[in-house]
């Protein structure tokens, strides 16, 4: 990695000490117009989403919090280095000297690229080894860069918040891998596949940071000025609307009208996913509310009906329910984006607005909005194909018996990969006790162990 | 809600694709002068305060963390949509076409508006149902918008950080509702009205995010340039000073000189409340320290003496002690603001500074600072009246027996409203045991239940 | 404090209401060029690192979370007031009227100054009283301001991210104090010197916020434009690289290849420390990766071999391992900074770049890069001397028996300083039971106590 960076990666003109000369040459009046000041606050928010948001969202399992946060940290830090290289080769290569010139926008895109793999991690959470995760990330980043190049640069679709390139791809990539790694005897670990009170509160940290900073996610790489401004407003409204429908549906479909923490933790975020592609378009505030409204319903019902169905009949074990949180809303987002783009008109956007928003320039200046709608739909198909196809291939690789994956009765457990503090080592005998060894002496000795370990 | 948004809400010129044409027409030199770049970082900080700050601050109860974070999330997401409409009608309505034009400043104001209701939630935490909370929020937002319109637009008081419009109003609104909903037999739930070790640590997450981002709260909607800069410095200093006095008073007045986590979690924030109105004025750094110093004392003593007194004699049960954290410091903030405004002089502010800071323009250009001081005081009275009056009316509505509020012995308990993980379902028998059923067999069976659920 | 602020501290021209006049006089075209908009997002990130990052990083102890977060809060809030004064006298004193003019950059520097003392707190965590901490902070801030004045203003070394002035100084200051306060019988508290499952997850909150916002830390006070941009890229890459080596080394050197949470929590941050001085220089992306790579190895091996060695043979008890996280990487950062500065050339930086980056102006314009390298090395020596010397002196003061420090068997325990919730008061009898009182009746009564307290 160091060698590759040494050969290929350099600072771009905005992060190079020649900036002040460049600035004068380009007639830029002030340091504040460095792209850094347009994008850095959004970048930091995205960074928080990747590391705290995704990391803590997955801590809900009672005994896999270390793995959730720790492996998330590991693969994100690995992935962003690899993403800078892969995305650089495809997007930022300067052909005059064969170098990749990086600036703040590349860092944001690397974080986006990593997000795709973290989504996939959600499907296989607790069932794979860290080595498998590294392999999943290595191939995932590579596929992502190719797919993004096809969708954004060849097809010329627009996808500011990545409903298609990030969420649809990441979702189906993870689901396909999980399908290939199906474990028929996973119920041996079922006593660990649940939450405890405080692990659910930890997961809410992840949920809230994702929810709050999603407007930054969708606006981070949109156009300066009105583009970023509009993307924030649309995402904010879609998310607010999703929360209400999620709570309503969760309460309606549960027995006794109680709320389920799983829905609150996950489905409330679906609106941000679904508004991703269209966030920079003129979706209008009520359009954002409608998107959020629908996604809250679909995502929550997905958790109630679809996830058990998929596990039972399609043999896809989806630990975090990424199909409901990322894959389905991502597809909805792609469709909404295509419709909104196809409906674009000069009266709504103005001539300059059409150019700024859709890059209708050069060869593409005469592309009608309708054609743009078609391109968006094509982009969505490419994302699904790459997700499913790539996931099956990588899943095959991960089935090789060389990666040290955990046994069926040791899934959702930090114990194989982490040095646990003493209070946790009292667990195995208690589990043994759970296995119906009703013996009072053992109860008391367990109790002694537990007391000792406090 | 979708229909109302469809009819009324549109993007403003800074978030509309015609921005680049507008910019050229107005001779604005760069995209970076879009209001978005002045306010977005502060907006995100305020957003964190609303969802993580207020949400986690209330997780201190041992068995009401889901309700604290989850219902906070729900009512905030609902409230901000309603606030965009209500505040839009009063403040941002474009009379040429009857539409509300929204931009980043409207999003910040909607978050502010929601803050008022979340403060009120603090007083009734654990004693109301989610439906009651929605009603409380619906009326609270409406009252807030009216009160804000009277104080800021009719009276022309200034209130950058909302000491009066947010904290004083929200505090007295919540206290009045709590007074109307007085429960004489609340001690039946007293075993749940306390914290455990880890729930106090969770609450510290809320405290710290509120504390750190309060400078953004007070500066988010102040004037560009020196106004935002000065508001940050004043708030930062007032908060730092409050921490020291809170720790000192807490240690002095507790037995054995021990610190009480309740004070550290709450009273340390009082300085930020009290400096809200005057943050953009020339309060001077030492003035901020004095305000913080006094508030730390008053707020901590309030927790030690006033809250028990209010519960016993005034029949106001204030779960989070919002009287000490929001109501009293808010009143102090209004008074400090009135004094600082009355003391404004051209020698300190400069002619332009007076115009920028106090909007002494048009009809009001000749208003002497002394009159501005009077207006500030009038604004404070309006805020208190709206808080107390509105709270009593809404409290009456909430006393109707149709809202599904929890029984006296089931307060401060997530169990009626949430699907709890298994480890919590072992609680009811243990509570039963707490109720003096000293029977060894039951103890052992409880123990078995608990072990099983881990 | 209030009096000192009243006498000395005023707003600077960018936070004063005369800003709009000043702006016109200086021909600054827009409010957005107020330094506030260059630095405020970074400031808030640094603020989060100080209060949430350092605070929660130290919550890993099973029974010292209140002390970690609470005392961190206390001394940071105290320290930043004192730092504004001390740094103001040395750096920002306006000799025309004898006042200190403060703006956003002073707030950032005050936070930096506090960071030095919080690092020192890491070494003595759990073994000192709050009064001792206040004394440690008072002297630490004072020493810091003098040392920073010598390094930055007299020697004219550059230290954007504070590898030398903050981390090296803070690290050796804390280690020297810990050496002076050596407790031979500390093993009486060894049952409390460990973590539990959830306390480790809390600590990960601190780790992640430090890790994510470190780019802001290193770029907060660098030059506008390319300087901030480059510092962010370098820090981001160094940190990403450190995570990978930390995980690899932790897994290689532990039995069974398991990961140790202590390393993940701490060593992953070492790269950000080590890249601090050189972050604004042309370290090049691969250079950042190399620095991060080396630091991950050294820091993790330090936790495995050096910390036990120091405790056993050098009588330095380093609770958080700050030697591995701050002191060693800080020294590495100083050396890297000296090398990078000495290698600076006009071909890489351009003439203006050299002036902007190294302030080669006035008397120093002809200073060759090689001489700058020597100055950097001299700065590093000054930082180490101040750290060790100051630590020994302050350690002597703290050994006086008047500060109320905890007994050897009561270290790492919140109980002496905090009102604990009931669930914790059941601990003493259980500990008593730990001390080998194997009596079944006591077991059962403990059990009863614990059940009652839930």
What does this structure look like?
Chains A, B, C: It is found in: Cell membrane. Three copies of one chain form a homotrimer. The first copy, chain A, has a three-stranded mixed sheet. Chain A has 454 residues and is an all-alpha fold. Helices cover 69% and strands 3% of the residues of chain A. The first copy, chain A, is globular and about 65 Å long. The longest helix of chain A has 31 residues, at 369-399. The first copy, chain A, folds into two domains: 2-410, Ammonium transporter fold (Orthogonal Bundle), CATH 1.10.3430; 422-453, no CATH class. The interface between A and B is large, with 73 and 69 residues.
CATH level 3 topology of the largest domain in chain A: Ammonium transporter fold
> Which secondary-structure class do the elements of chain A indicate?
mainly alpha
> Uncertain segments of chain A of ≥5 residues (pLDDT<50)?
424-454
Question: Would you count the extended β strands of chain A for me?
Answer: 5
Radius of gyration of chain A: 23 Å
Whole-number mean pLDDT of chain A: 83
Any idea what the shape of chain A is? globular
Architecture of the largest domain in chain A in CATH? Orthogonal Bundle
Distance between the termini of chain A: 44 Å
User: Tell me about the biggest sheet of chain A?
Assistant: 3 strands, mixed
- The oligomerization state is homotrimer
Relative helix content of chain A: 55-70%
Number of helices of chain A: 19
Strand content of chain A: under 5%
Q: Regarding CATH, which class of the largest domain in chain A?
A: Mainly Alpha
């Amino acid at each position: 990695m160091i060698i590759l960076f040494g050969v290929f990666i350099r600072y771009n003109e905005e992060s190079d000490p020649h900036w002040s000369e460049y600035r004068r040459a380009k007639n830029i009046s002030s340091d504040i117009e460095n792209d850094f000041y347009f994008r850095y606050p959004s970048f930091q928010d995205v960074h928080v989403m990747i590391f705290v948001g995704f990391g803590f969202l997955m801590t809900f399992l009672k005994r896999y919090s270390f793995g959730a946060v720790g492996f998330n940290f590991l693969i994100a830090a690995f992935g962003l280095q690899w993403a800078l290289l892969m995305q650089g080769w495809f997007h930022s290569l300067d052909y005059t000297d064969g170098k990749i010139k990086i600036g703040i926008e590349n860092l944001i895109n690397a974080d986006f690229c990593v997000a795709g793999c973290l989504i996939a991690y959600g499907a296989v959470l607790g069932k794979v080894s860290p080595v498998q995760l590294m392999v999943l990330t290595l191939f995932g980043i590579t596929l992502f860069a190719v797919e993004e190049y096809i969708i954004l640069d060849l097809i010329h679709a627009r996808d500011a918040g990545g409903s298609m390139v990030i969420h649809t791809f990441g979702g189906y990539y993870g689901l396909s891998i999980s399908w290939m790694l199906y474990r028929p005897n996973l119920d041996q670990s079922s006593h660990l596949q649940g939450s405890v009170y405080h692990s659910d509160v930890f997961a809410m940290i992840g949920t809230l940071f994702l929810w709050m900073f999603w407007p930054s996610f969708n606006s981070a790489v949109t156009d300066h000025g009105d583009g970023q401004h509009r993307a924030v407003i649309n995402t904010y409204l879609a998310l607010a609307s999703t929360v209400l429908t999620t709570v309503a549906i969760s309460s309606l479909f549960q027995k006794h009208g109680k709320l389920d923490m799983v829905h609150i933790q996950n489905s409330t975020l679906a609106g941000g996913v679904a508004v991703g592609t269209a966030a920079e378009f003129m979706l209008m505030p009520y359009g954002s509310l409608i998107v959020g409204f629908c996604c809250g319903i679909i995502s929550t019902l997905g958790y109630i009906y679809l996830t058990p169905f998929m596990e039972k009949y399609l043999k896809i074990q989806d630990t975090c329910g990424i199909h409901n949180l990322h894959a389905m809303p991502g597809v909805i987002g792609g469709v909404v984006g295509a419709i909104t783009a196809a409906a674009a008109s000069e009266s709504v956007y103005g001539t300059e607005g059409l150019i700024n928003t859709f890059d209708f320039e050069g060869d593409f200046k005469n592309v009608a909005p309708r054609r743009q709608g078609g391109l968006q739909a094509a982009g969505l198909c490419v994302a699904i194909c790459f997700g499913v196809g790539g996931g099956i291939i990588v899943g095959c690789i991960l089935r090789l018996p060389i990666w040290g994956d955990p046994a069926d009765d040791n899934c959702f457990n930090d114990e194989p990969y982490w040095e646990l503090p003493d209070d946790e080592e009292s667990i195995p005998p208690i589990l043994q006790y759970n296995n119906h060894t009703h013996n009072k002496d053992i109860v008391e000795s367990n109790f002694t162990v537990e007391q000792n370990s406090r």
